[in-house]
Design brief:
One of its GO terms (biological process) is regulation of microtubule cytoskeleton organization. By secondary structure, this protein is of the alpha+beta class. 24% of the residues lie in helices and 24% in strands. It is elongated, with a radius of gyration of 23 Å.
Length: 288
């Protein structure tokens, strides 16, 4: 993608990182020029975001200057310094960021996690199938010290999924009902620094422990139908794991918002005295 201004004056390297400051990481210049630099970077972000949205048939861009402000999101830009008659061209970009997500694992158990996500990925149509996407993605993984299977992907296209399977061998797609996709291995070690949350009916709690939850002043939810109990991982592994409800895996031809398996209704389980188990990571106190 070409621009009227000199892209090479903004980006001195092939791979460049942009944050909410709109100042290239390795940019060095007179402080009086910073405002002009930010305006040009803003133009680049808005234009490539629109191009990505068109390529993905989205109603509005996922990437723009306004969406980058006041976030911890990072945009990686791939630049061709010889393009546009020596002014430089933008070949593609990749955007990552942290998100607080509710995700279901292979067994249908839910996890509340703050996880790193791939939010947008685009290579210009004239430069595809040239290995540029792999250069971008690999740079991001190395820069952020991540494994491919540990990323949640926002609304991946079939082409993107094929790219990940071809270059990184990810498999075992776990579709979600919030537009994200994760892969087998994503939930490994999910208990690190975490805890488990269990939901029981009062009757089930008494059957398991022999006394009422009111005795321990444990909080109740769902208008008194359920007792919420937090336990360390060791108790989950040794005792409560056998009460986990699993949901059979099914093959699907689509991914994202409407493709995820729908777990059994928790309220229905509570009414019929079936224990419902959810796994939640320790809250970070950070807002998305």
């Amino acid at each position: 993608m070409d621009f009227k201004f000199d892209v090479n004056k903004l980006f001195v390297k092939e791979l460049n990182k942009i944050t909410h400051t709109l100042i290239p990481t390795d940019f060095t210049s007179n402080p009086q020029e910073l405002r002009d630099v930010q305006m040009k970077v803003s133009t680049i972000l808005d234009d490539i975001g629109k191009a990505s949205a068109i390529a993905q048939n989205l109603n509005q861009p996922v990437t723009s200057t306004s969406k980058l402000q006041d976030t911890d999101h990072i945009v990686y830009l791939l630049v061709d310094s010889s393009g546009n008659r020596g002014l430089g061209s933008i070949l593609g970009f990749l955007k990552t960021g942290w998100k607080n997500l509710f995700l279901f694992d292979e067994a249908g158990l839910y996890h509340k996690l703050r996880t790193k996500c791939v939010l947008d990925f685009y290579v210009h149509e004239s430069k595809q199938r040239m290995g540029l996407g792999k250069i971008l993605y690999q740079h991001m993984l190395e820069e952020e010290h991540l494994q491919p299977e540990k990323l949640a992907i926002d609304r991946p296209s079939n082409k993107f999924l094929q790219f990940l399977q071809k270059h990184y061998g990810v498999h075992g797609i776990i579709t979600q009902n919030n537009k994200f996709v994760v892969f087998k291995g994503f939930f490994d070690n999910v208990f690190l620094n975490g805890y488990c949350i269990f939901f029981f009916s009062t009757k089930m709690f008494i059957d398991l422990f022999g006394f009422s939850p009111d005795y321990l002043r444990i909080s109740t939810d769902f208008s008194g139908f359920s007792t919420q109990l937090r336990l360390p991982e060791i108790l989950f592994r040794s005792f409560f794991g056998k009460h986990a409800i699993s949901y059979p895996a099914t093959s699907r031809s689509s991914y994202g918002r409407y493709a995820a398996a729908k777990p059994t209704c928790s309220v229905a389980n509570i009414i019929h005295d079936v224990p419902t188990l959810g796994l939640i990571n320790e809250p970070t106190g950070s807002k998305n």
